[in-house]
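Researcher: Next entry in the queue.
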Amino acid sequence: MFKLITLLLFFSLLYLQTPYAQQEYTPAQEAIIEKYLDKGAYQHHYISQEWTDYIDTALSLDTTIAILWEYKALPLWKTRRYEMALVSYDRAVQYNRKRNLSRRGFLKCIFQKNYAGALTDLQMAKKEFGLGYENDHTYDFYIALCHLQLGNLEQARRVLQTELDRAAGRPAGYTVHYLELFFMGIIQYELRDYDKAIDYLDRSIKQYSQFSDAKYYKGICQLKKGAKIQYRNLMHEAKADYDKGFTISEDSRFYEPYPYQVNWSMVTLPE
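Model: Structure for this entry, 271 residues:
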C-alpha cells in the first residue's frame, strides 16, 4: 500500500512539475517556490495538512503564482471537494491560462462530472491554443466523452470518429488507443447499432485482451441480438477479468470511476 501511495504521489507531482506552458517567475517568486514548494510542500504528501499549510503561506506572500493555486486545489480534487477545488483552480487558469484551461476541462470531465462545464473549457482551449493532450488523450477525446454523457450521441460519434481518423502528428506505427475504441463501441451501443458496437468493442479487446468493461458491454450487445449463450459466457469472463484487476487502466481510475466503467455491485450474473 505504501508503494502504491508513493507511486501516485510521484505521478501527480510529475505532471505539476512538467515545464509545459510554464509561467515566467520573478526572482522573488522563484524564492517563494523554492522555500515553500521545493523545501516545503514537496516534503509531504499532498493530502497532508502540512502540504496545505505551506501552500497557504506562499499564497499569503504572492497570489499571482498559478502553480500555487494548482497545488492548493490538488488535495481537494483527490478528496472529492470539487467546489472548493474549482475556487482555487479558477485562479490557476487566471494566472496561467495556457497550462490550466484544458486541464480544468479534464478535471471537470473526469473528476467533477460537470460535462457541460468541461465541454466549454475544452472547446475554448482548442480554439485558443490548438488541439492538445491531457493524460495521453487529445481534447477531442474528452469532448466526445462530454457529448456522450450529455446525451448528444451523434456529436459524440462525429468528434470521436474524427479522433480515430486523425493521423497528423502521430508517430509511425501508431495504434489507436483501446479506450477510444471502447467509447466508440459505447456510442454505437447507445445508438442501438449493436453490430457496430461489437465491432469496436472487439477491436478494443484485441488491444487489451482482459478488458472486463469491454467484454461486459459486448455481452449486453449479444443479449440485445438474442445470443444468450454468448451473453452468459461474456458476463462470466468479464467478471473473472475484473476480479483479477483488469478494468480501465487510466491513472485517474484510482480516484474516480470513468464513464461506463462497470459497477459490478449492480450486476447480477446470469446462471
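Model: The first strand starts at residue 133 and ends at 134.
Researcher: Noted, moving on.
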